[in-house]
Each structure stands twice: as structure tokens, then as C-alpha cells.
Design a protein that fits this description.
Largest sheet: none
Shape: flat
Order of helices and strands: HHH
Helix content: over 70%
Structural class: mainly alpha
Distance between the termini: 53 Å
Number of strands: 0
Number of helices: 3
Strand content: under 5%
């Protein structure tokens, strides 16, 4: 049952990545593109976790955690740049 669920999860996350990339390329505003980048980071984290479960190892969970932290900081920096035009004050 687990291999079927993992395969279904990989297919769903692959579809989510493709749809997010479409929004990233076609987003009419910069805010849409920032949101698409944040969603793409979340999708990448989910793919790493699925890969972790599929390989039955806890090695990649740290990579997922680091990607989550970097994605959060990046999103905050993009939003601050969009609002003020400068990242470092």
C-alpha cells in the first residue's frame, strides 16, 4: 500500500510543480510571481520528504528543514523589496 501512496504523492507533487511553474511564468504581477516561488519552495520540500519516505532514511529531512528556512527568508526579502524597493536599510 505504501508504494502506491508514494507513487500517487509523487505524481500529485509533480503536477503541482508544473502548475506552479506555469503561474511563475504567466503571473501578471510581481506578487503572483513571489507567491509562486514560495509555493514552489513548499512543493520542493514535499518532494524531498516523499523521497525520504521512499528511501526509508532520515538523511534528507535536514535538507528539507534548511530549504524551508531559506525559502521563508527569501520570501520575506522579496516582499520587503517589493514594498520598499530596498532590502537592507
Amino acid at each position: 500500500m505504501l508504494p502506491i501512496a508514494l507513487a500517487f504523492g509523487f505524481v500529485c507533487m509533480g503536477l503541482a510543480v508544473l502548475l506552479t511553474l506555469w503561474r511563475l511564468l504567466r503571473g501578471p504581477t510581481a506578487a503572483d510571481r513571489i507567491l509562486a516561488l514560495d509555493t514552489l519552495t513548499i512543493n520542493a520540500i514535499a518532494l524531498i520528504v516523499l523521497f525520504c519516505i521512499a528511501r526509508d532514511t532520515a538523511l534528507y529531512f535536514e535538507a528539507a528543514l534548511l530549504l524551508a528556512m531559506v525559502g521563508f527568508v527569501g520570501t520575506v526579502a522579496y516582499c520587503k523589496f517589493l514594498l520598499r524597493g530596498d532590502i537592507v536599510e
